[in-house]
Amino acid sequence: MNRTLNVTALLLAAGLGGVAAAQTQTSYRGPKVTLTYLHGFTGADRPVMERLIAQFNAAHPNIQVRGQAQPWGTTWQQLPSLVASGRAPDVVVINEDQITNFIARGAVSPLTNAELQSAGISKSRFYGPLFKTADYEGKSYGVPISSVAYVMFYNKDLMKKSGVTKVPTTRAELLAASRACTTDRNGRKPGQSGFDARSLNTWGISLYNNWVGSRLAYAAILQNGGSLVDSKLNASFNSPQAVEAVQFLVDLVQKHNVARANSTEEAELAAFSQGKVCFFPSGQWYTDRFEQQKMNFGIAFVPRIGTKQDAAWGGSSHMTLPRQRAGYDANKRRAALAFVNWMTSPNQNLAWTEAGSLPVMATVANNKKFEGRPIAGVFAKLGNIYATSGFPWGGQVLGPFDNAWANAYSGKQSVKAALDAGVSEANKQITQARKTFQ
After folding, report:
1. One of this protein's Pfam families, by short name (predicted)?
2. Which CATH architecture has domain 7-148+315-374?
3. Which residue from 3, 29, 20 is spatially nearest to 345, judged by alpha carbons?
4. What digits encode the pLDDT tens for the residues 349-396?
5. Contacts 24+ apart (CB under 8 A), 13-21
């Protein structure tokens, strides 16, 4: 979201003015220190971050933060050598798909419960799964500052035209609504004589073959009680729960004919914008696009395709404290924790949502500024967002998983064969990756 932010007005509207005053009081009482803060917010979100840093510096005369924005990929390349040479920044933001790798390699230092408490950082103020994204082997290593999520956009006009009066929340409802929204070029519906699945005019749901498309499969697997890895962190996305979940999605194309076969994200995005498809599961980052197009759309949490729980994929960024050289100034670490606490507190998170992030805590999600906004349709279930983290070999798992989804969705392989092949390949890569951690 790129709307201009009036922070003071938002704080007053939120009833957070008292909290704002309290947040100017830092837990740090030591001598003046200067902190280096490395982050990858280099786009439209950069001015918001720079404004927040300036506000912190103005309110904390004994802590001055020097922000450095650079592309995420540059940070991933540089951080290990910066840590090894004793030149690590004091605070660095790391994304969910990289954080466990850096933790396992010893590049990030754990945050003890005593440290968090002393700095005023309470785990309970954040959504539980989001905070745990930066946990590893029973320890915490980061505090969430930013979040995005996989959601389901829906076209209100096409739903109304198709006679669909309720946004689906279950597997059965999703299938029924998708059938109602699907017609071929001659106006026939699935199951009717002469229906041509190869020539759809409108269809129920968008599925597609890239990594974003595979995140719906990831959500379905979690909802069924499955996971990407087992307790030993080996790939396990071919479990019976996973096969059943992914089979339902593939059946939407191959059996029920309510989705296009082997489509791309770009094609489905265009189709949704043109009013051709009722339900478009994708990243919440498309919200601004649809608002600018003045579409009559809504946003819902991913329907419960599985049988065990609500779940959807989410990405996130966490503020971390890299491992420092021997003799590192303890005052700087305490000051860094005070900065992390301030930057991840409700008022600052409220401001940060203007950069396109979702709230990272319920207090902010309940703010009145979101009333009537489409994105608020997922807020009640933000506590059910799960990142693909917790295993150091993220690429070695996610690459084969994404490829398995593409092969199953396109019909190149059966669901079971595609997932089995993906797990086999992932575990081969994991075996090699493990050697780099020894």
Report:
1. SBP_bac_8
2. 3-Layer(aba) Sandwich (3.40)
3. 20
4. 999 999 999 999 999 999 999 999 999 999 999 999 999 999 999 999
5. 13/367, 13/368, 13/369, 14/346, 14/347, 14/350, 14/367, 14/368, 14/369, 16/346, 16/347, 16/350, 19/345, 19/346, 19/347, 20/347
